From TrEMBL:
The keyword Transcription applies. Belongs to the LysR transcriptional regulatory family. Keywords: DNA-binding, Transcription, Transcription regulation. It comes from the Bacteria. This is LysR family transcriptional regulator. PANTHER family: HTH-TYPE TRANSCRIPTIONAL REGULATOR YBHD (PTHR30419), NITROGEN ASSIMILATION TRANSCRIPTIONAL ACTIVATOR-RELATED (PTHR30419:SF8).
Amino acid sequence: MDIKPLRYFLAIAKNASFTRAAEQLNVAQPAVSMAIKKLETELGLTLLHRADRKISLTDEGKRLLLHAEKIIQATDDALLEMNELRGLNQGEVRVGIPSMLGSYYFPPILMAFRHRHPTINLKVIEGGTWQLQKMLEDGELDLSVIVAETLPEGLETHRLLKEEMRVTVAKDHPFSQLESITPDAFFDEELVMFKEGYFHRRVVDRLARETGKSPKIGFETNLIPLIKSITQQGFGVSTLLSMVVEGDDQLISRPFNPPIWLDLGIAWRKGAYLSQANQAFLDFVCKQGHDSENR
């Protein structure tokens, strides 16, 4: 089987459109249509529903998609490894980093890596932990930082650091007079939260379920400066990693009772070939995490 029609099929499945798939592949739409028609003829199966210009996968198409994703990924890994054996290092790292870590933990690491490896191109994608994890599993990222609560079977991970989630309030908030904050007391307050999909929000949602409380969310935003500003002005309370509030004299942070600690790691697809650039980045980041824990 020619692999090119599988690439076309995968692009159509992801875009639900022949036109958008052709644009993504940078080929003419008739070429995409002909390739898919030939693939269906070769397999003796209908892979796509084409009713009313709405493209969707048939049951047979859904089954093929599972194989196509693995075949394309394995082929790309093989080509990359063969190129590197000929000395053709692509020199690109695609890494996903959640916003809190991207703003407070990773900037000096990224700059130090860039200084050591100036020819390697760093492509940093910011997003929610679970969105980044899905992109990693789909091959859209090479590496991603994750919260290592439950590790999917298809990923491997290396622990970077352990960080505490702390209740964050304005300086004149009553919580500032307490040594620690119970989940019950936290959920009695109006909250300033990240949107769903970010580990910050998932930790709070899980804590609410365990406590039997319904969070009273007054503000939702993924902008850390805005979360801090709203909290500082007394319009709600939040919870942020200790690294985010450390040294901020405009906010007060207190631990939960009991404390909430998160294991943060960097992950990659199990069995996938890591390019020389990705392996160099992984080794560098893991060493920084090891050094920070030993300080």
